[in-house]
Fold these 4 entries.
Entry 1:
Amino acid sequence: MLRNSKSVSRLDILDWLKDPAAHFPPQRHVDLTENGVTVRAVAVKLGVSRKVAGTHLGMLTRLGLLRTRRIRHRTYYRRDEIRIAEVARMFEKGW
């Protein structure tokens, strides 16, 4: 099955956020594993603009696959493992 580049990018983001410390540079005041990563970090990793990265992160957040946390003036994104497991179970059941 062929996937468009947007779905591949979103899957990549979800995969990277399983272990953000392995895929993103450390942040001075934030623990990547606990708090997540910024739109800017994802944009750099994907090689796209912040707007494009923000669109991907927004879609994943609206689907409930990511959670956000505001720290200072930035929003950080991290996986919602419970929701991801729920979605995986739906697909396993033949949803």
Entry 2:
Amino acid sequence: MSDAVKLPEGYEISADTGRIDVDRVHRWLSTDAYWARGRPREKQERAVAGSLNFGVYDMISGDQVAYARVVTDRATFAWLCDVYVGRCVRGKNIGTALVGAVRDHLEPYGLRRVLLATHDAHGVYEKLGFRGLARPDHWMALVF
């Protein structure tokens, strides 16, 4: 795909689920993310366990500073969700670099599409090749 977006010096991206700071991710999402506010810890743990998980880490402290999750069959479809960048590192291109790394990680699977939903970050995703649905009238959702 397109060129990877570089992380600022001193940060690294990992797809190792074992490195995910589940406490931190749950706190971020359940208290600060409009789409996941109030999400129970047990539900977050199940989401992590059933997904591909990506973290961005401060290389000096080892602290996780960002997170993204992908639900996929690794053959035809993926849903990018729970993309969150810690408030202390926003504005450093960390989110763009994270989503670019996720995109590049998924590319070899030969997926037909990767979907996501966003209320306010269209510009971030558009830089990485995401576009609005060409035929949104073809899509439906079952909402519980």
Entry 3:
Amino acid sequence: MNRTTQSLIAAVAALAAVTGYAMTSTPDGGGDDAKAAARLPVERSSLLCPVPSASDLAETSYTAFTPKGAASGADGKAELLPATRELTDAPKEGGSGADKKKAVKPFLSPKTPGKPVTGEETGGESPALLGTADGDLAPGWTVQQTTKYAVGSGRGLQGANCTAPDTDFWFPGTSSAKGRSDYVHLTNPDDSAAVVDIELYGKEGALKTEVGEAIQVQPHSSVPVLLSTLSPEEQTNLTMHVTARSGRVAAAVQSSDDELGGDWLPASADPASRLVLPGIPKDATSVRLVAFAPGAEDADLKVQLASPTGSISPAGHANLHVKSGMTTAVDLGDVTKGEAGSLVLTPTEEASPVVAALRVTRGKGADQETAFIPATNPIGTRATVADNRAKGSTLSLVAPGGTGKVKVTASEGSEGGSSTSKTYTVKGGTTMGIKPPVPTGLKGTYALTVEPVSGDGVYASRMLEEQEDGVPMFTVQTLPDDRGTVSVPKAEQDLTVLQK
């Protein structure tokens, strides 16, 4: 092959790795083209963490981590900076204020892959944060934000896996009911304004709202929007659709309940006919399923609980009919009956796309706490979650199809400890709830990576829990692919014709 051809192919591959252009894999496979494509490590990654709290009593910790593995071959740099920082400093001599970016000290700055870096904030002054990584630190770049509320509305642990900016988000499981405060945080990382629309759907369809249209999110700013201000109708179960008509944002919902605590509600996976919601705690006292069909057709779903011994239909809820454009909610009670479980939704007839999420409650009486589990994607090539502790971390693995085998790796500790790995086999149709491996000689916190070894697609989530004054505080994060690699399509054009 001549040098000109080699250079052109290298340029195409590099562009794909930098921009994130990819042919994403699906549970059904990507076809012959996807199989022929090469997977390359990404060269740049960005994540946004929402404003954690306005309470002076809140304590927030951040953990940043990049797994060891296939790297880009370039020295890396990673920083966690205020996303709402000022853009300019003193002007250059003879120039305007816009000529110079203001230097801001990073809140966190990991130096090498494989070791987490942590930081803490106390009180209500923490801004939204923008995490960027390139080179060796970009593939699988992960940031976890965990806030502990000792008292007040939303009391408990509230965890968020910081996410990449996008243009389209679905949030089934939101609410505008009395005693519930749901804020959607819209954060714009770019130098130009974003324009965002918010639509709400209740049990009878779309709610009328004018203030949810054309919301301006200025450059490098974050806007919290209280859902109850968008419509005068109080509804216990809502589905929210957030779209950016221009620009891009990160969107996450912070839900607080006067009696049941609260947590962050991440966006559901994209609408699909088959959904997996992994990791219902074995001691869940109440589970509510909220689903929405955004297409033109109703959806009829088979509801199954993947338990440690096999798949079963919840009593009285074997099937679920979801009307098009309307939010459907069903209370499943203590569906897990003391065993780890995951919910699997499949079409009973003609497939129609659906989004869904679970609201999970633990505890009783005044000592209750809630968390959310949205439908998610499989672990893919590799999934990563940060901020695990020696005590209080539970990993849930579910194989909704055939049996799958995965390797779980515990990273080095943030303050010391050696990495260790263990392989698990998850039987088809079951959920495995495990105490994950812990680094040898652990000091501080650590990260977990989950990688497929063989078999069908495996889904995963991590629960982080802590007891305080009788309250079972907890938060659940799902583990989709960490987007550490992109699939670069094989060039179909014969580039040799370009040589003269």
Entry 4:
Amino acid sequence: MHISENTVQVRYAETDQMGVVYHANYLVWMELGRTKLIEDLGFNYAEIEKVGILSPVVDLNISYKTPVRYGEKALVKTWVEDYDGIRITYAYEIYNGEGQLAISGQSKHVCVKKESFRPISIRRMFPDWHEAYEKAKRDKD
């Protein structure tokens, strides 16, 4: 299993009146993690969009544990939790500046044709990407 990591400097604009990161901003950080993971695997999401393929979120789950605050650096960990050739489940853990788990979550995606929103087989259309996801996904021992 490959785990991608990146760091986010918490900006004042991302916090609420209490100095705590506003809950919706974790979604943005999850996207940053997903993009970094795809790049770590040797691909570029923008390239598949150029050929008319999109990857919408079809399900999202976040569990909030402890806050991340203004001035901290958050650590975003991302990996492929599950993949079947069509659907991809990315998993996330975001840690606060003290190394405590702030959120855990998952987002499920499917690749679709832009003009029809009909699902496509990643296995058939992007065999290299398929192979990389098969190697990177979490072992289910």
